[in-house]
Design a protein that fits this description.
The structure holds 2 protein chains of 2 kinds.
Chain A (H helix, E strand, L loop, with lengths): L4 H23 L7 E2 L2 E2 L3 E7 L4 H14 L3 E6 L3 H9 L5 E4 L8 H7 L2 E19 L7 E2 L1 H8 L9 H6 L11 E5 L4 H13 L18 E3 L1 H11 L3 E6 H6 L3 E2 L1 E3 L4 E2 L3 H9 L2 E2 L8 E2 L11 E11 L3 H15 L1 H9 L7 H12 L4
Parallel strand pairs in A: 3-4, 3-5, 7-12, 8-9, 8-10
Antiparallel strand pairs in A: 1-2, 5-16, 6-10, 6-11, 6-16, 12-13, 14-15
Helix pairs in contact in A: 3-4, 11-13
Chain B lengths: L1 H5 L7 H7 L5 H38 L10 E2 L6 E2 L2 H32 L2 H15 L3 H27 L16 H25 L3 H9 L4 H30 L2 H6 L18 H8 L5 H31 L8
Antiparallel strand pairs in B: 1-2
Classes of the chains: A alpha/beta, B mainly alpha.
């Protein structure tokens, strides 16, 4: 039995790749020839954990990175933002995915985890929270912040309420009770939705912002999928979910009018709002402050961050973390977001993200 | 007394050799050691779990600005932290009570039918199917409850409100009948039904033939026989079956988390959306909880642990008080 030339060559190539990847894992980075996102591949293994809102984007990115760079292994565990930040601070992961920038209370532990310098927030995945509704005969619905707050605070309870009718001239709104659905579990979606309500309708929405739903009335459902299913199966219902869930379930979504005319809930309109956000962090820390009262973009958006060390990440993880984040923030990486119902980071903000990622060093 | 007579009259094999203390069978020593270790391991595990719960819940007790036992809200991660178990305890107990009211009579009825009424082949099929019901994962029950049962409970809820609305627990002022304590209770009832019926069936089949025949020979109808011969004998077994069911109902997590609307308030209108339980609350809040939040959830777990322990101790007490009925054996 003879061994063919090709299989001999393949075996040699395998040994070579193994040797290279062995170099990579203990040397903290070694190119295996291929490129991704316009930069050479890095092999090795890193762990990350956190936000479940990023889960699908991460899965897609990791898949693409590992396909292009065979020596790289990246593990992202979507165990929630809080747990992600804790894992990162304990040194168990190379970076954390989080629905919010590092809080003052968590900062000392996160900074201490970085051998030199501080932990930085890098905005990476944007999202839009849409008001999905199920009212037969109504294809187009426009809501103002006060009306949204009224519906979710249970002060507006009928679809033909004058406040809703005022924003939707000509629509045949039914004389039906609004079945309002919110999240029953703690979530970043609720956090960002209530941030929007407190910023834009403070006189109607008096329940503060937070991950847990505090307003009385309505019905809770578990997870974005739970809210989506409930809205789909209940007539005259409305609920807030992330854009991708409404798209997948082909539910109608409301446009939002912040006083400058109705703006459709699309990925592109949400990107406008995110890129116009002001940076609240200092230096390469890009914690953002979103202007929910914007009249030019779709206002109910959320930004999720990757939290990692600017300087002093352990050498074994450094090169791959930097390379992976360079890829995710590249045009190639960001274009994958829109495909998955997320919102891409664009414009000046993306340039700042590039600067922050390139500043990651030993 | 027949059982003692059947025992061999020879003395225990170790009795004579045991005096010398040398030639005790090695198997005996090893087995005694193993079973002692197993027994101690249970106690150790229990106390270590309790210790862990207490240890991890202390941080939240020190920062809580509200009364842990009388507060309904659950906002441990806000400043200042405010949380309490009143609504959780209420929801847990009410869903479990509804489940018990529905499942215990039905479960015992099923068991009686299988053991003493049904045709032999029929009873084998029925016994198999109830056991199979116990093998259905709880998330399936949750999804079924949410997707199928909820829309079908609308009519019943409406009827209860229209005709029994003067009783607060049946009243519904919202006109919405989904995601309620009542529906969660019904789903829990179905989930604990196999536990109750399988255990009671076991006990019913152990009722001595003599007792049953004596009762029938005295002219009792079948129902009188069940009351005179079966129930007194099987009472402790039925109680422990019910208590095991209650234990499952108290701790059931994912099915309840899917079904309930999870509002942390005490609402006596059981058919309205709302309610929350210890286990469901932990499942819904764990992922996104901060450090105080995690500690607070563990504190609520500690309370559930204690409630379950108390239920079991009470059940033990009842069983031992009724132990004399076993004298008929």
């Amino acid at each position: 039995m003879t061994i063919s030339r090709t299989s001999q060559f393949a075996a040699l190539a395998m040994i070579g790749a193994l040797a290279l990847s062995a170099c990579g894992s203990d040397g903290g980075g070694g190119a295996s020839g291929s490129t991704i996102g316009g930069q050479p591949c890095v092999s090795g293994e890193i762990k990350a954990s956190g936000s479940s809102a990023q889960k699908n984007a991460m899965a897609d990115w990791i898949n693409a990175y590992q396909t292009a760079c065979t020596g790289a292994t990246i593990n992202y565990q979507a165990n929630g933002s809080g747990a992600g930040v804790t894992d990162f601070s304990n040194g168990q992961t190379a970076f954390a995915g989080s629905d919010s920038a590092l809080k003052d209370a968590d900062r000392p532990a996160a900074d201490a985890r970085c051998a030199k310098g501080a932990a930085i927030d890098i905005p990476m995945v944007g999202g839009a929270i849409v008001l999905a509704y199920n009212v037969s005969g109504i294809d187009k619905l426009v809501l103002t912040p006060d009306v949204i707050a009224g519906i979710f605070a249970n002060t507006i309870t009928k679809w033909n309420d004058p406040a809703i009718a005022a924003a939707n001239a000509g629509a045949a709104l039914p004389d039906a009770t609004i079945a309002q659905f919110h999240r029953s579990d703690s979530s970043g979606t609720t956090d960002n939705f209530t941030k929007f309500l407190t910023a834009t309708a403070p006189s109607v929405w008096t329940y503060d912002k937070g991950k847990d739903w505090k307003a009385p009335g309505g019905q809770g459902a578990k997870g974005s999928d739970g809210v989506t299913t409930s809205v789909k199966s209940t007539a005259n219902s409305i609920g807030y979910v992330e854009l991708s869930f409404a798209q997948d379930a082909s539910l109608a979504v409301a446009s939002v009018d912040n006083g400058g005319g109705a703006i459709e809930a699309t990925s592109a309109n949400a990107a406008t709002t995110i890129s116009a956000a002001t940076v609240a962090g200092t230096g390469n820390d890009l914690a953002l402050t979103i202007d929910y009262t914007t009249k030019t973009g779709y206002p109910i958006v959320l930004v999720t961050y990757e939290i990692t060390c600017e300087k002093g990440l352990d050498s074994a993880a450094l090169e791959l973390t930097k390379s992976f984040l360079t890829y995710t923030s590249s045009d190639e990486g960001q274009s994958k977001l829109t495909e998955n119902g997320y919102v891409a980071i664009t414009g000046d903000l993306l340039t700042k993200v590039h600067t922050s990622v390139s500043a990651i060093s030993a | 007394m027949s059982s003692t007579r059947e025992l061999p009259a020879t003395p225990a094999p170790t009795a004579s050799s045991g005096i010398k203390g040398k030639s005790v069978r090695r198997g005996d020593t090893v087995f005694r050691g193993l079973s002692r270790i197993a027994g101690i391991a249970i106690l150790l595990t229990m106390s270590l779990i309790a210790l862990f719960l207490v240890w991890r819940s202390i941080p939240s007790f020190t920062v809580n600005t509200a009364n842990f036992f009388t507060t309904s809200e659950w906002f441990p991660d806000q400043t200042p932290p405010v949380f309490g178990i009143a609504a959780l305890a209420f929801g847990t107990l009410m869903t479990s009570i509804i489940a018990m009211i529905l499942a215990v009579p039905v479960g015992i009825g099923v068991a009686l039918f299988i053991s003493h009424y049904a045709h032999r082949r029929m009873s084998a099929i029925l016994a198999f199917s109830t056991d199979l019901l116990a093998a259905v994962p709880s998330i399936i029950f949750g999804m079924w409850g949410l997707e199928f049962l909820t829309p079908h409970m609308q009519g019943l809820g409406q009827w209860l409100n229209d005709y029994l609305g003067f009783i607060p627990i049946f009243r519904n002022d919202l006109g919405q009948y989904s995601k309620s304590i009542f529906i969660a209770g019904v789903v829990l009832a179905i989930m604990i039904l196999p536990t109750i019926s399988a255990l009671s069936r076991e006990v019913f089949t152990q009722v001595p033939r003599g007792n049953i025949e004596a009762s029938l020979a005295l002219g009792a109808t079948r129902w009188e026989m069940v009351r005179q011969a079966i129930f007194p004998f099987a009472k402790p077994g039925m109680i422990s079956a019910a208590m095991l069911g209650l234990g499952r109902a108290l701790g059931e997590t994912i099915a309840v988390a899917l079904i309930l609307s999870a509002s942390n308030s005490i609402n006596w209108h059981f058919t309205e959306p709302g309610g929350n339980t210890f286990a469901a609350n932990i499942a819904l809040r764990w992922n996104e909880a901060g450090s105080t939040g995690l500690s607070a959830l563990i504190a609520s777990g500690l309370v559930l642990f204690i409630i379950t322990l108390v239920v079991n101790v009470v059940a033990r007490g009842i069983i031992s008080r009724h132990a004399e009925f076993r004298g008929g054996n």
